Amino acid sequence: MTDFDNSYARLPERFFTRIAPELSPAPEMVLWNPDLAKLLGTSDWDAVICAGNVIPEGAEPLAQVYAGHQFGGWSPQLGDGRAVLLGEVATDQGRFDIHLKGAGRTPYSRNGDGRAWIGPVLREYIVSEFMHAADVPTTRALAALRTGARVQRERAYPGGMLVRIAASHIRVGTFQYFTSRGDEEAVRLLTEHVRARHYPQAANTLELYQEIVRAQARLIARWMGLGFVHGVMNTDNMAVSGETIDFGPCAFIDGYSPKALYSSIDQYGRYAYEQQPSMAHWNLAQLGSCFVPQLEAELGGEQPAVDALTEVLNSFPPLYQEEWRRVFGAKLGIADPGEDDVPLIQDLLGLMAQDGADFTNTFRGLLDGSARDWFLDRDAFDAWVPRWQARRAENWQEMIAKVNPAVIPRNHRIEEAIQASLAGDDSKAERLVRVLSRPFTLSEDDEDLTHPPREDQVVHQTFCGT
To answer: Which cofactor does it need (predicted)?
Structure first.
């Protein structure tokens, strides 16, 4: 039995528009997550309910409004243009949104059709469930469906819908929307809502901001440790919960390059791999500006508020660097990584970048010595190894095996699964989900999924599907 308790729907009406999903002509389940369904109490849901054709008892469908900086340019009103928040489910592991992505037009669709096609739906399902299995804070997928409709992009595709689960869908851009309108009451209500829902340990606005900054430092460091490129880090795509959200033109690095970029719409590399920490910092600066008026009231003046928020914002780089050392130190089997270990880590990454060494297989290959095979300049790698051996912990093999996945959602494998699904074969997508749900262990039958793409399989660009 699904236990809905829709706290966001109890906020003032200017936070959203109540709207039901558009009907899907012939919904069909493609992927289903039984473990997540059990947690949410949705085990009895079928494709008709997941598509939003039947609204379950207790749900209050709505589309959230927000704004955002998109590739640095200000958009004063965005919002759920192709998604509907069905409602919130209270569980013994917390509160979760159930969100239907691809649910049709809303007042925020901006001339779009509000629909999704099956390709991006499968990509988000596969990648988000891998991220969860790899212990990265993330939205998750309950179901992927075909809707029975045709969606026109560069050509007609089978329509798709993702049932997405999140701790919430509140974004930096949600705060920006109300701040840009001078609606201080709404910002205050939103602040109280976020603090109660995500950071009850925060005693005030400044502490809430500190918690959000810490959460983003942890999140981005984990992205970097997996070679993950989000691709579209606009402020409307940064969740204040600290979860990875909006898997659009995302991808994982094969041959390592710090400038790795896959998004078809990021022409200038704003959101390339190496840029992600600084972009998170930039986004957090925009969030901090939203807190000035209420912190001014709490601290008794504008300048004290600005100074306090600036101090918290400036804590992001050292917090991120600490998290980055911890993540990459663990990837090398170093138990207590400190500043002195940074050159060791950076030198390995430099060699990897120089030779285009496979990111995932190099780190995993430290276990069995196969890492060396990914380098062209093996003498340079051999010279690095003794320095590493001098720093690794006694249980270094156990550490490496726990944090370096044996398999990731390779871009070409996702593309293969999408193309197979377009031809009516969902087995490749099902296999990826099965294998990637346990990414640190691998059977011999699935070793082919560890192989980098051949030259003719390389995926140079990914797309969000709007």
So the answer is: Mg(2+); Mn(2+)
8 Å CB contact between 70 and 234? yes
Sole residue written with tokens 């949410």 = 40
Of 163, 282, 274, 143, the closest CA to residue 216 belongs to 282
Confirm whether residue 231 is marked as ligand binding.
no
Q: Are 81 and 151 in contact (CB under 8 A)?
A: no
| Residue 464: per-residue pLDDT | 66
End-to-end CA separation in angstroms for the chain? 34
**Which amino acid is located at 381 in the chain?**
F
Known binding residue 105? Answer is no
Distance (Å, whole) CA 150 – CA 116 = 10
What does pTM read for this prediction? 0.96
Phi-psi region of 242 (alpha: psi -120 to 50; beta: other; left: phi over 0): left
Q: Which residues of the chain have pLDDT under 50?
A: none
* Residue type at position 376: L
Beta partners for 73?
70
User: What are the contacts of 298-303 at 24+ separation with CB within 8 A?
Assistant: 298/204, 298/205, 298/206
- Give pLDDT, residue 112: 87
Is 246 part of any known ligand binding site? yes
As annotated, the active-site residues are 236
